[in-house]
Amino acid sequence: ITYRLVKEYNLMINILRAEVAANKAGELIMDIEGSEQDIAEAIDFTAHEGIEFRILKSGITLDEERCVHCGACTSVCPSGALTLRRDDWSLVFAPEKCFACELCVKSCPVRAIVAVMHLNGTVLAG
To answer: 12: which of 20, 33, 35, 52 fits an S-S bond (Cβ 3.0–4.6 Å)?
Structure first.
């Protein structure tokens, strides 16, 4: 199935965890990148094949009132989603660049950054 998702739906897949046994139900957690249309078509394909597909998205939220703009999070952010504005040294968060590695959560001394998890649009943690 994973091969077909890559080949036929132009998706880039990173398998994060797999628990699969022959003739038994299993679980596969994947990071999937592709166009919205390709992902939607892939979800339809998996449903047609009898595979349950749940969308799990993770990210971070920044509590701007709690943030002291120390920049500790910027030094560990590999994607460049967290930067300091040079004119006033205030923290800038670009969520579109964030890939939810959560290194910033651990580095924030005032806990202004929180990891958030969504399953099919419902917030699970945060």
So the answer is: 33
Contact indicator for 100, 93 with CB cutoff of 8 Å: no
Cα–Cα distance, 55 to 43 (Å, whole number): 10
Give the residue, 126 or 48, on which the prediction is more confident.
48
- Both 22 and 69 in one domain: the answer is no
> In angstroms, rounded to a whole number, what is the distance separating the alpha carbons of residues 33 and 44?
16
Q: What is the pLDDT of residue 123?
A: 59
What 3-state DSSP class applies to 61?
A: strand
The closest alpha carbon to 19, from 9, 30, 11, belongs to 30
Pairwise CA distance, residues 14 & 46, whole Å: 17
71 or 25: which leads in pLDDT: 71
Of 12, 32, 53, which residue sits at a domain end? Answer: 53
Q: What is the CATH number of the domain that holds 28?
A: 3.30.70.260
Half-sphere exposure of 22 (CA within 13 A, CB side): 0
